[in-house]
């Protein structure tokens, strides 16, 4: 890897980590950067998922105040997310590389559309404002389904998960965002473990991207506050 590519991935990681920890847009920044370094679509996808783990580490470590009091919900949603991440990773590992390459443009288009039609987090939080007792098992199922997508490809998975939590839980943006970062991070973690052993991870690209992800992830919660 050349020095310019290394710098590109670090900067892309910072930008992706910042936007990812704030609004769930990380992969729409980092995935094209990986493609720009010459990786195949499938290798870029699994490399991105592995590097994303550091985004979650950074954002969660900076969000401990917002996670206070959410332990019961975190356990249930976290288990659902990990199961979904496993399913998504298995589906990706079973997808032929050429089929995935043909599918990528549609996945990116769908993710872009989800972002375009999505309202701002503060608008969603205002609509969902109310007592937090509305947490129910439908939210667990929704988390599982979004985590499947997150483990498979992931672009805009954070957008979907954040919107769901803000509308259903009646929490403010900082607490809903912190919950999203941890839960989606667990889905990415289990998927990344599978990819690390069973997929073509470009480690020389994953390391600078992960470094940038960590820095951006640390900064994101501060911006949300």
Structural account:
The protein has 11 helices and no strands. With 225 residues, the protein is mainly alpha-helical. The chain has one domain. Helix 8 (137-152) runs antiparallel to helix 9.
Topology of helices and strands:
Layout: H1 3-23, H2 26-36, H3 41-61, H4 64-67, H5 71-94, H6 97-117, H7 121-128, H8 137-152, H9 157-169, H10 173-198, H11 203-224
Helix pairs in contact: 1-2, 1-3, 1-11, 2-3, 3-10, 3-11, 5-8, 5-10, 7-9, 8-9, 8-10, 9-10
Secondary-structure class: mainly alpha
Give me the Rg, rounded.
16 Å
The averaged pLDDT comes out at 87
Order of helices and strands: HHHHHHHHHHH
| Major sheet details | none
Question: Count the helices. How many?
Answer: 11
Instruction: Find the count of extended strands (DSSP E, 2+ residues).
Output: 0
The portion of residues forming beta strands comes to: under 5%
Q: Based on CA inertia axes, which overall geometry fits?
A: globular
The end-to-end distance, rounded to whole angstroms, is 37 Å
Unreliable stretches, pLDDT < 50, 5 or more residues? none
Total discrete domains: 1
Percentage of residues in helical conformation: over 70%
